Amino acid sequence: xxxxxxxxxxxxxxxxxxxxxxxxxxxxxxxxxxxxxxxxxxxxxxxxxxxxxxxxxxxxxxxxxxxxxxxxxxxxxxxxxxxxxxxxxxxxxxxxxxxxxxxxxxxxxxxxxxxxxxxxxxxxxxx
Length: 127
Description:
127 residues; mainly alpha; 6 helices; elongated
Protein backbone atom coordinates (compact mmCIF):
# COMPACT_ATOMS: atom_id res chain seq x y z
CA UNK A 1 0.00 0.00 0.00
CA UNK A 2 2.75 2.45 0.89
CA UNK A 3 4.55 1.93 -2.45
CA UNK A 4 1.30 2.70 -4.29
CA UNK A 5 0.83 5.82 -2.16
CA UNK A 6 4.41 6.90 -2.90
CA UNK A 7 3.78 6.52 -6.64
CA UNK A 8 0.49 8.41 -6.38
CA UNK A 9 2.28 11.16 -4.47
CA UNK A 10 5.04 11.47 -7.06
CA UNK A 11 2.60 11.61 -9.98
CA UNK A 12 0.22 13.98 -8.18
CA UNK A 13 3.00 16.42 -7.26
CA UNK A 14 4.33 16.67 -10.82
CA UNK A 15 0.80 16.86 -12.23
CA UNK A 16 0.16 19.68 -9.77
CA UNK A 17 3.30 21.51 -10.98
CA UNK A 18 2.11 21.16 -14.59
CA UNK A 19 -1.32 22.49 -13.62
CA UNK A 20 0.31 25.46 -11.90
CA UNK A 21 2.17 26.32 -15.10
CA UNK A 22 -1.10 26.12 -17.05
CA UNK A 23 -2.67 28.31 -14.38
CA UNK A 24 -0.05 31.03 -14.92
CA UNK A 25 -0.76 30.85 -18.66
CA UNK A 26 -4.51 31.22 -18.02
CA UNK A 27 -3.86 34.27 -15.86
CA UNK A 28 -1.80 35.71 -18.70
CA UNK A 29 -4.72 35.20 -21.06
CA UNK A 30 -6.86 37.18 -18.66
CA UNK A 31 -4.35 40.03 -18.71
CA UNK A 32 -3.36 40.04 -22.38
CA UNK A 33 -6.36 38.61 -24.21
CA UNK A 34 -9.76 38.95 -22.58
CA UNK A 35 -10.55 39.68 -18.93
CA UNK A 36 -13.25 37.00 -19.16
CA UNK A 37 -10.40 34.47 -19.24
CA UNK A 38 -9.94 35.06 -15.52
CA UNK A 39 -13.06 32.96 -15.00
CA UNK A 40 -11.30 30.03 -16.68
CA UNK A 41 -8.26 30.73 -14.50
CA UNK A 42 -10.42 30.71 -11.35
CA UNK A 43 -12.38 27.57 -12.26
CA UNK A 44 -9.28 25.64 -13.27
CA UNK A 45 -7.63 26.62 -9.99
CA UNK A 46 -10.50 25.26 -7.94
CA UNK A 47 -10.48 22.05 -9.99
CA UNK A 48 -6.80 21.16 -9.80
CA UNK A 49 -6.64 22.39 -6.22
CA UNK A 50 -8.06 19.04 -5.20
CA UNK A 51 -4.63 17.58 -5.99
CA UNK A 52 -3.15 19.20 -2.88
CA UNK A 53 -5.30 16.92 -0.73
CA UNK A 54 -4.28 13.88 -2.80
CA UNK A 55 -0.64 14.90 -2.32
CA UNK A 56 -1.08 15.28 1.45
CA UNK A 57 -2.93 11.99 1.94
CA UNK A 58 -0.48 10.10 -0.29
CA UNK A 59 2.48 11.54 1.65
CA UNK A 60 0.95 10.41 4.95
CA UNK A 61 -0.16 6.96 3.74
CA UNK A 62 3.11 6.46 1.87
CA UNK A 63 5.11 7.09 5.03
CA UNK A 64 7.19 9.70 3.23
CA UNK A 65 8.40 11.33 6.41
CA UNK A 66 8.02 14.67 8.11
CA UNK A 67 9.62 16.71 5.34
CA UNK A 68 7.31 15.48 2.58
CA UNK A 69 4.22 15.57 4.80
CA UNK A 70 5.23 19.07 5.90
CA UNK A 71 5.68 20.24 2.31
CA UNK A 72 2.30 18.74 1.40
CA UNK A 73 0.63 20.47 4.36
CA UNK A 74 2.33 23.73 3.37
CA UNK A 75 0.90 23.34 -0.14
CA UNK A 76 -2.59 22.96 1.31
CA UNK A 77 -2.18 26.11 3.41
CA UNK A 78 -0.69 28.15 0.55
CA UNK A 79 -3.41 26.98 -1.82
CA UNK A 80 -6.13 28.03 0.62
CA UNK A 81 -4.43 31.41 0.99
CA UNK A 82 -4.79 31.96 -2.78
CA UNK A 83 -8.55 32.40 -2.40
CA UNK A 84 -8.13 34.46 0.76
CA UNK A 85 -5.85 36.93 -1.01
CA UNK A 86 -8.32 37.35 -3.88
CA UNK A 87 -11.12 38.03 -1.41
CA UNK A 88 -9.26 41.21 -0.36
CA UNK A 89 -9.31 42.58 -3.92
CA UNK A 90 -11.74 45.44 -3.14
CA UNK A 91 -11.01 46.16 0.52
CA UNK A 92 -7.22 45.70 0.68
CA UNK A 93 -5.58 45.59 -2.77
CA UNK A 94 -2.09 45.41 -1.26
CA UNK A 95 -3.02 42.13 0.41
CA UNK A 96 -4.73 40.87 -2.75
CA UNK A 97 -1.51 41.62 -4.63
CA UNK A 98 0.09 38.75 -2.70
CA UNK A 99 -1.98 36.35 -4.84
CA UNK A 100 0.57 36.06 -7.70
CA UNK A 101 3.51 36.05 -5.29
CA UNK A 102 1.91 33.20 -3.36
CA UNK A 103 1.23 31.43 -6.66
CA UNK A 104 4.93 31.36 -7.46
CA UNK A 105 5.67 30.23 -3.90
CA UNK A 106 3.23 27.35 -4.45
CA UNK A 107 5.06 26.36 -7.63
CA UNK A 108 8.41 26.48 -5.82
CA UNK A 109 7.22 24.34 -2.90
CA UNK A 110 5.65 21.85 -5.31
CA UNK A 111 8.87 21.56 -7.31
CA UNK A 112 10.93 21.02 -4.14
CA UNK A 113 8.43 18.36 -3.06
CA UNK A 114 8.54 16.72 -6.48
CA UNK A 115 12.33 16.57 -6.55
CA UNK A 116 12.43 15.18 -3.01
CA UNK A 117 9.84 12.53 -3.91
CA UNK A 118 11.80 11.63 -7.02
CA UNK A 119 15.05 11.35 -5.04
CA UNK A 120 13.37 9.18 -2.40
CA UNK A 121 12.00 6.90 -5.09
CA UNK A 122 15.44 6.56 -6.68
CA UNK A 123 17.01 5.83 -3.30
CA UNK A 124 14.47 3.08 -2.65
CA UNK A 125 15.01 1.50 -6.07
CA UNK A 126 18.79 1.27 -5.58
CA UNK A 127 18.55 -0.56 -2.27
